[in-house]
């Protein structure tokens, strides 16, 4: 059977990993497909510092992506540049030219993936995006095909390796957040500008994509409640451990009677759960189905080779379709059409909460805080105070019985106005449904 020819745009970490796998594993890929994949064009903004693997040096090498998407021999374009401007133009132009597209671009697919899929259908080509979320975990395939017969009721995950690395290092070493972040940047785990990772925006895009697959709704990332991890300190882990919990940046999607509730935020999770054991830069996704119950998926969330495997696997799947001439394609969003998403506020959901305070110590503090909780109809569960001698910024914790987010936020706003508060209170939900 004739070869399928590829054009690779973007030779950063993911693009370089993809090329290496195609070169080193080409023979086995051909054995699995029954035909070879051949790279006929590669593109990068700068080629002088890029190493093209042996065996692929005969491909067109260009700094102009248009030469790839307009190349008459290219059957499939891999868009691996990231972002939502040039990348969108690349994908749209490739589809317009009748070329299938494989992408690892979470921001783009979260922003306009369904519209791009509609364009692919109109042109009779394919669009694949397995590498856009949790690079080393085939979670798209799981949701799109593996458990597609189930009805998903909840999905929780750790989807940002940088944040998970930082949190687990703070937990293990007791070092301050800023020190661990600086070390992560030095090691290459965090970008020079870490905003997308530590403030939850990267994870938000990934949750938007997975929620579309799981629940069949057109999710806008901006509709997802999002909080980052900058305020988590070593003392929070000490208190969490006292409660037999740990802290992770949790991406959550739950189907409720009110509708679909989505959030990205740090939360306490029981140490006894499998999700609590996810360390370092690893990702994990826990899925609950109405019929199949619980399943769990774990692996590396990023890196040249794990993400490159996802890209190459997508290239193989698209190549099979091209060579078999199959007119039936499974939507990358697992549903023929996505319904409009009507956001349901996290304010309506009930959770137990962990409230951490730093105060200027004096008599009557607990009574004042408990009075505010009572006013908001929130039941106090426990008060914890580890030994400390800093009376001007004394930390302690109150846990409360399951209450609405709305009530807890109102209570925290009132507490923050009290004159003994050294800093605003930190409120974290306690996940007990895992």
Description:
The protein is of the alpha/beta class and 434 residues long. The radius of gyration is 24 Å and the shape is elongated. The chain has three domains: 4-135 and 304-336, 3-Layer(aba) Sandwich (Rossmann fold), CATH 3.40.50.720; 139-300, 2-Layer Sandwich (Dihydrodipicolinate Reductase, domain 2); 348-430, ACT domain (Alpha-Beta Plaits, 2-Layer Sandwich), CATH 3.30.70. The protein is built from 14 helices and 18 strands. Helix 4 runs parallel beside helix 5 (106-123), helix 5 runs parallel beside helix 10 (201-215) and helix 13 runs antiparallel to helix 14 (405-416). The model has no long low-confidence stretch (mean pLDDT 92).
How would you briefly describe this protein structure?
The chain is built from 14 helices and 18 strands. With 434 residues, it is an alpha/beta fold.
